[in-house]
Specification:
The chain has about 120 residues and is mainly beta. The protein contains no helices and eleven strands. The model has no long low-confidence stretch (mean pLDDT about 95).
Length: about 120
């Protein structure tokens, strides 16, 4: 079993920055992918960024150049640095861990609100 705890969300003005963290506990596979998803009100959950255990990353077009995903395997933690935030980035952000192969686990989510 794996537990994921997100932190770092909050209210920020447009153009500001936030750093989200997701700490994993439990049995973590050495080969895995960790992702950040987000879900805005009335919209489907969408993939924001992903990073595999080897370090390769992938981003949604809407966040490329503004968001950076990283991980510290020794701390079992994944981060999402969000810069130049826009009102359309407002959503609940969810962390997802998936062993390869295997099924994924979700965190409880953290609210990010971008507003003046």
């Amino acid at each position: 079993q794996v537990q994921l705890v997100e932190s770092g969300g909050g209210l920020v003005q447009p153009g500001g920055s936030l750093r989200l963290s997701c700490a994993a506990s439990g049995s973590i596979s050495s080969l895995n992918v960790m992702c950040w998803y987000r879900q805005a009100p009335g919209k489907q959950r969408e993939l924001v960024a992903a990073i595999i255990s080897g370090g390769s990353t992938n981003y949604a077009d809407s966040v490329k150049g503004r968001f950076t995903i990283s991980r510290d395997n020794s701390k079992k933690t994944v981060y999402l640095q969000m810069n130049s935030l826009k009102p359309e980035d407002t959503a609940v952000y969810y962390c997802n861990y998936r062993p390869i192969p295997g099924v994924g686990y979700w965190g409880q989510g953290t609210q990010v609100t971008v507003s003046s």
